[in-house]
Amino acid sequence: xxxxxxxxxxxxxxxxxxxxxxxxxxxxxxxxxxxxxxxxxxxxxxxxxxxxxxxxxxxxxxxxxxxxxxxxxxxxxxxxxxxxxxxxxxxxxxxxxxxxxxxxxxxxxxxxxxxxxxxxxxxxxxxxxxxxxxxxxxxxxxxxxxxxxxxxxxxxxxxxxxxxxxxxxxxxxxxxxxxxxxxxxxxxxxxxxxxxxxxxxxxxxxxxxxxxxxxxxxxxxxxxxxxxxxxxxxxxxxxxxxxxxxxxxxxxxxxxxxxxxxxxxxxxxxxxxxxxxxxxxxxxxxxxxxxxxxxxxxxxxxxxxxxxxxxxxxxxxxxxxxxxxxxxxxxxxxxxxxxxxx
Length: 342
What we know:
Domain Luciferase-like: 12-253
GO molecular function: oxidoreductase activity, acting on paired donors, with incorporation or reduction of molecular oxygen
Number of domains: 1
Pfam families: Bac_luciferase (PF00296)
Radius of gyration: 19 Å
CATH superfamily: Luciferase-like domain
Protein name: Luciferase
InterPro entries: Bact_Lucif_Oxidored, Luciferase-like_dom, Luciferase-like_sf
CATH class: Alpha Beta
């Protein structure tokens, strides 16, 4: 057995995007990232759910995907960041989660949130004006189902019986009240790689949210904060920009159309708005040393989105994160399955 006391767990998040129309290859490549991350000692692999297609992909059915990943990996934990909870039947979702958890040997983490796409809400017949209410209602039912309580009718419990999910439910939030609400409900906190609608740096905006979460936490167990960040290490800053610069700039211009970012952003400002850490591993480590939320994080979750590097480049970036960036920040790679509460 491996004995380790890392500062944080290391995860990676994929939005399952590629280039072109070969979605089968995009999905295969994303599966390979889980295998690579498992071998590198990453603690958790996360996927994001998108019902509306992203450019070059997107994953509508994360639990099917994670069931396949469970069969191809041995120790990495498997999670969603996030499942769009208002668009799910929470009892049916609990069944899927329990099946994947059983098949994987208890390696599942589930992150939930309200989503943002009005098209997705329309497709599933839900009112986006009720997204917070629906998230709260469905999370209550989901928790009861995963606790193996009777749900909706006497005598009905999900099967297979779920493991202990007390410390394995995460909630994505975008405000200080949202952080306090997550703590009040006993959910772990998920913070996005960027804060939208603000001019100040993302970490300056999110640090009060994290502080509010910890202040409101009244559970007997340790509070957990998952911090998603854009990390892209390469040989040097110029090389990194060649792989990510255009994608990040285009994404920022698209988001400006919905008001998330100001219009007409220059490439450098787009990188700042997405709170991107890129360049040599040494440069990234130095910049993360100034990150205002990272000292509170129990989980650092690396992602490349909105950049879509080719598969070999993505693999190399994961390798650099696991072998050079994260160890310099106090992380140690795992070789055995990682318990939920580590």
